Amino acid sequence: MSEELLVNVSPVETRVALVENGVVQELSIERSHNKGFVGNIYKGKVVRVLPGMQAAFVDIGLARTGFIHAADMSDANGDTEGRRGELPDIRTLVREGQTLVVQVSKEPIGTKGARLTTNLSVSSRYLVYMPNSTHIGVSTRIEGDGERQRLRELVETLAREHEVPGGFILRTVAENARPEELRSDLGFLQKLWSDFQSKISGAPVPAAIHTDMPLFLRALRDLARAPIEKIRVDSRQSWSQMREFCGNYYPELTDLIELYSGERPLLDLYGVEDEISRALDTRVPLKSNGYLIVEQTEAMTTVDVNTGAFVGRRNLEETIFKTNMEAASAIVRQLRLRNLGGIIVLDFIDMKDPEHERQVLRTLEKALEKDHAKTSITGVSELGLVEMTRKRTRESLGQMLCEPCPLCRGRGQIKSAETVCYEIFREILRDARAYENDKFLVLASQLVVDRLLDEEAVYVADLEAFIGRTIEFQVESLFTQEQYDIVLV
Hints:
With about 500 residues, the protein is an alpha+beta fold. The protein has 4 domains: about 5-35 and about 225-270, 2-Layer Sandwich (Nucleotidyltransferase, domain 5), CATH 3.30.420.60; about 40-210, CATH 2.40.50.140; about 280-400; about 415-489, Ribonuclease E, catalytic domain (Hypothetical Protein Ychn, Chain: A, 3-Layer(aba) Sandwich), CATH 3.40.1260. It is about 30% helix and about 25% strand. Strand 20 and strand 21 form a beta hairpin. It starts with a strand and ends with a strand.
């Protein structure tokens, strides 16, 4: 399997695409005027404590106040409370007006402010340093017991040698890392944290203490790992910064970074622009002629699998099984590409054979192993649904690139012209009983007026006879299909 990292940099936005065997798997976008906040550390002020929710709102200087739960706070001794059932009262942890140093763990999404934590952490290529913890953990994606033990003991030894207090998490990319590589990372994190502490004491409230690296450098830290074969960037300035960054921290990547100067736009060359357009659609075609319907709501995301025109060669059960197997891999790709998180419900086509169900679930789980986000999956429920969660730290692709439709206000549908006509009739009847006027003037969209003068003309005549007044119509070009106005003349 070959992987390439494509970095498109412009004055207004940066886009990074992870391509596997010529197919886009992940896409990250960062706009200059709206950079992400996850990982940023702020000195903020508690503006409201909510005992009933075991939470508090913290002003960190963003448009919306951040939200912190008691489970995301450390007590006075720096020990993190692990289980919500044993949490102390939030009022014993914070009070209104208190200054708090917090880190953003989830981006502001929709009307929700950023999710915050006092369990601060800073990352390097191989390590995550947690100054308020004593735990040393290893990524669950590193499966070998011997390697996990080696890494844990190595970091414990290095932390003692350098007298670095706190906890660490070894990231997936740390597998098979050499001692000198981990020592370099630990020294980098030690200096970084020392700089933070010196900034915190003199910073006003609210203030940003630390902001994460730009997207094109974060991509090197988080995505550039084996089997990456090439990193292409179309900006000479960013190419220079990336090579300098790798020279200091990840020298093995330096020679993989190439400056792209072709006439055709870099993302066009790999079909990324087309993939972005398709990823904003609810319907996803499958090679078998089946398709997925992906719908994202504020509460959850649902994915429905359909056979479409695919009929198979043998029988219906074979058709269903093959469609579900293809859909399992396609679903994971869509989750990664669209960056869908939270609760996700997958509605596979019902299968009668339990072995078919197991194979589809195994395919789903195998595909999820490549996902950089943390996921959790259940078996098939009695209703034939698969429930899963995917860690959500930032807005989805749709939330970032789109906005609610001004016509339907995000509902995804609008009232039909027929429905609006009948609403107009009911309002005219109400007004006729309440007012003594000579006639009514109806202002509405072209489609509604056309229907009133055509399909509904007989009812309009009956209504005029019933109320004893004339009804006239006028097209208002600026009105949407649902808008209308009735003027008493």
